[in-house]
Design brief:
This protein is an alpha+beta fold. It has 2 domains: 34 residues; 235 residues, Deoxyribonuclease I, Chain A (4-Layer Sandwich), CATH 3.60.10.10. Helices cover 28% and strands 31% of the residues. A hairpin with a 2-residue loop joins strand 3 and strand 4. The longest helix has 29 residues.
Length: 275
């Protein structure tokens, strides 16, 4: 009686073990794509206020800017303070020249006419640019816009909007108005959006608070690094902000230690996207 009971208990336990193993195996096999790391494509993004190529030595040297960018190996670049055929920078189409030097597509967005040309911002992209939009923003001390490009970084991956930002440097009230216009201009986007550039605002400012409230995540800096002025940075005013991404591990923005080429230091981060 005891032997029979003991054997029955063992059989029942073994049966339970086999059933559990069977169910676990089925669940594992059916869920393999989600349990294992998906195949991803990594892209590098850079934002850089280049001060029309004028370095801290007061020399305008766009090839020096190109050299800095080449070192960072970017796939997407948001540039601020770009000249288009202005006399102060040698009447050069700076966005086109940087695109040629780096082998990247380019788009330019004008703030205003200036010195026989135009002054504004640009985006460089290693990926074909499917669409570009110049968003007119509220004016400040100067006219302002944001420049959005839409790209598809991976063949079967999602579309991505990459937006170059350069908000007013004089008053927070101007920056808040510009941010409100930007939020309104991007509200219909159903795909992920990345803002990149010179926001001229520190982390606790009202303009950045409004961007957070609208769904943007401000990516933190590695070692809480500052970005301006480049020889010895004291303030953090250049950022990447994302909307529409789910990060398992939040990426950190790195501030590149470049002290000569411009009065800002470039910032960079690496993003993983499904292929």
């Amino acid at each position: 009686m005891n032997l029979f009971y003991s054997s029955g208990v063992k059989d029942e336990r073994l049966t339970r073990v086999f059933i559990t193993l069977f169910l676990f195996t089925c669940a594992f096999l059916s869920g393999t794509p989600s349990l294992q790391a998906e195949e991803t494509a990594k892209i590098r993004l850079v934002a850089y206020n280049i001060k029309h190529g004028r370095g801290m030595d007061n020399k305008v040297d766009l090839r020096r800017i190109a050299s800095v960018l080449r070192t960072l190996k970017p796939d997407l670049v948001a540039l601020q303070e770009i000249d288009h055929t202005c006399t102060r920078s040698g009447s050069v189409d700076q966005a086109a020249l940087l695109g040629d030097l780096l082998g990247m597509h380019h788009r330019f967005g004008a703030f205003m006419d200036f010195q026989g040309g135009q002054y504004g911002m640009a985006v460089l992209s290693r990926f074909p640019i499917q669409k570009s939009i110049r968003h007119q923003l509220a004016p400040g001390a100067e006219p302002r816009c944001a420049l959005e490009v839409t790209v598809r970084p991976a063949d079967k991956g999602p579309l991505l909007s990459f937006v170059s930002i350069h908000n007013d440097w004089t008053r927070e009230t101007f920056r808040v108005a510009q941010v409100n216009d930007l939020i309104a201009g991007l509200k219909e986007r159903e795909h992920p959006v990345i803002l990149a550039g010179d926001f001229n605002a520190e982390p606790k400012s009202e303009s950045l608070t409004r961007l957070r409230a609208s769904g943007f995540l401000i990516l933190p800096k590695k070692n809480n690094a500052k970005t301006f002025p480049s020889p010895s940075p004291r303030v953090e005013i250049d950022y990447f902000m994302t909307r529409g991404f789910s990060f398992v591990n939040q990426p950190l923005t790195e501030v590149h230690d470049e002290r000569l080429a411009s009065d800002h230091r470039p910032i960079v981060f690496e993003l993983s996207l499904p292929k």
